[in-house]
Amino acid sequence: MNTAFQLFKYLTPESFLAETAFFVLIAGLFKSTASRRTMLLSLTLLGGLASIAWIALHPENIVICHGMAVIDPLTRFIKIAIVGLSLIACVYAAASNVREHLAEYLALILFSTIGMMLLVSAEDLLMIFIGLEMTSIPLYLLTGYLKRSAASAEAALKYFLFGSVAAALALAGFGFKVAAVPFHLWAPDVYEGAPTPSAALIASGSKVAGFLILAKFLTLGFATGTGSAVWDGLQPGWLPLLAVIAAASVVVGNLAALSQSNVKRILAYSAIAQSGYMLLGLLATGVNGLTAVLFYVIVYALTTLGAFGVVGIVEQRRGGAQLHHFEGLHRSAPGLALCMGVFMISLAGIPPLAGFFGKFYLFTGALGSVSSQNGNLGLLWILIVAVVFNAVSLYYYLIVLKHIFVVPSTEAATSAPQPRSAAGFCIGLLAVAILVLGLYPPLLLSPLQRAIHGATEAAKVAAQPL
Amino acid sequence: MPTALFPTATLLSALAGILLILILPSRWGGAAKWIALLSALTGFGFAVAAFRAYDLSAAQPIQFQLDLPWVEALRIHFATGTDGVSLVMLLLTGIIAITGVLFSWNVTQQPRAFFALFLTIIGGVYGVFQSLDLFLLFVFYEIVIIPKYFLISNWGSTNREYGAMKLTIYSVAGSALVLLGILGIYVLAPGAALNLQSLAKVTFPHSFQLWAFPVMFIGFGVLAGLWPFHTWAPTGHVAAPTAVSMLLAGVVMKLGSFSALRVAMTLFPDGLAAWRMPLAILATIGLLYGALVALAQRDLKFVVGYSSINHMGFVLLGLLTLNSLGLTGAVLQMFSHGVIGGLLFAVVGRMLYDRTHTRDITTLGGMGLAKALPFAAFTFTLASAASMGMPGFSGFIAEISILLGAWKSFPVLLIFAMLGAGVTVAFTLRALQRSFFPSLAAAQSAAAANPHATEPLPPITLPERLGAAVLMAATLAAGIFPKFLIDPILHSFESPQSLMHHLIQGVTR
Hints:
Helix content of chain A: over 70%
Shape of chain B: globular
Number of strands of chain B: 2
Strand content of chain B: under 5%
Oligomer: heterodimer
């Protein structure tokens, strides 16, 4: 039994973030100027880094309140990733068009991050529900933050309605969180209407937490009743359901993205398709599938966060995120253009970038999960769907790059030198990370495997009667 | 440097070139071509060094082996090695890299980006030819795709955005098929991981081979211009800037045929046996069809583009003969067509089009090119002779070996292949005669129709002469003294320890 004091200690990283959020709110009472905004951002980053440092420095395995929540190597690893992703979203926010009430905006990001961290630790349906709500409610507010924009308000309402209805149903709730078909309809409008840093957070940190908890929910909660999604040996259970959802997400996401003219909408439909690939990894029940899914979702979060960063800067300078706003970007901002190239090509799953290795791992995991005597590859049908539509997806990613690198710019004012900003630095860092992880995947894979191994060991210890 | 690293060094020299160009300040952009040339020369030097260090007496044909752990969790290694076939391909890549840079000497639009992308393709191609790990091979194979798109869409000519996108989509569709096969292999042979040498010892289930072989062969075949999946090639070749046409025809199409041999044919003997005849028919249709369509073209670059389909049809037919004559001929034809195709594209794209701004063979005929650009006329005549398979050039020895091989294996198809070789002569002579040596009446009417016909053309520059000389020397050397290429190729097929030994065994029963 844990005392209240101990509980408080276990929640130190979360409370760091909460305290930071309150400090930021108080500091935000003063008049907003450029230097104040920098100050607010620094305060946020400081708090976030302190939280990361605390998690990294306290490698202990704890079961809170008879397994309502756990802290083990895996949850610590994912929490560090989530806080890091949120901090980059904060950097974007400080550079974005959210000029009024920046403090509240940053605080909401932090509150949502706390929700994600709780969600990651939760191992009890009630806790999961609370975590989901704590994540989502600040996200609804973040989506509708641009009060004078009708699109932002519409997006928030749509997100809220979908979210609150979906939250009432277990699998639908997760399907909503990861934007899988048929729970995906909110995504394009939200990604397009929300302020770009909010969309970046929804697409990255929120998705990492969502996939971890979905994996836990399915493997821990429904270890039996899996069924089988094998083509000629279908058995009812959640595996065939998941397989159909995954295939539908891949098909719908990739096809719908083909006809979009707004880069944020392209990213939204791409996110739906990418969720489909990750769900494929969940078909491979077991450690291998979990590792593949988590590797991919982290890589995907880094990539999409970078892409949204570029979109945010372009939006800021050229007043929109339509494809034509990106024309001639390689002339006016060669660094940004190059980074966007890395992100798009990684999303398309072309080596040597991290997205390719991630997909390869997911696909082999899914295909290898069904025992294969006599060369009978049971899940081949879904692999064919995934691989074929992955080839299709290159088209729309290339269209984005075509506007950046090939179509000459018609705007005259694009030759202005690019200011060196914190957001630009983060984007560059993300692009380098994608390249390095693609060239040498063990940099992320090995620690992830150790964390997952540590978590299973810890679970075994905890399961032993005292 | 230990000899084992010679092939790896070709890869590293391309990488070093890319990195140097990337850190080059933009005001020194003109230096990019020098860096690219240096990188290409170094790569070629190492390819030659590997050629000289290759031990023909050793029982193991795969030499210069290197095996570094990469992603241990998935048992993926950075494993490279070079046998005689790879060796010939590395040599070809070196030659095409050097001449490609020489024929792009006049690129002034964003030279850094151009040469960095160019070297990326070269590096990827070097990588494919020496990969011994299937994952690594696929990584290099895919690396080539994206640079092609940007090179064509940014620096290309006719219909470049369409041509670039079409080519990219075809390439990616081909790789998707290949990826499916690789995933199946990975799952079905867990012990072997993806190492080609271990995989060659695995017997895959019959049912798997029956679908995986055609899927992978056709996937690779898309890049090799296999009919009816060839349509990217003419439009892509025509849209591409000269150096990229040279790369596409010279080495990138060979990635397809090389990988089809190295992966699909080597790993799936049962699938090969079942699908050999249908695929050989497709190859024969391709070589006949390419020749016939080339006969009807007015655009000189389309003629050369379709001639690539024709020549690659010979390669694929040679591979499927499964006897040492046909297989050796196929590899020789890869080398030969790489050099000759590169030369033809260099003349048409760089020497003629950049000066006359037309590729219409009738209009070109009105310009008196034999007098105005005697060097171009000479080069094109020589390249045409080589392309037709005249004795003394590399094309002769390659095509005669393939035809002799086909005689043994596909006597009926041989008739059509011979017909194709005949049409090759016809379309080559037609293009040569109409554009360079037209009849007086045709020349006069074409000159009358074109007010610019008598304008003086800029002379052929030194880099062009050098590049053409290298390619002509290569085709002549391979034609007059083919033994130095045939020996390592035969060694790789016939050595009992070869991965591809069973290919020849299978037929001499």
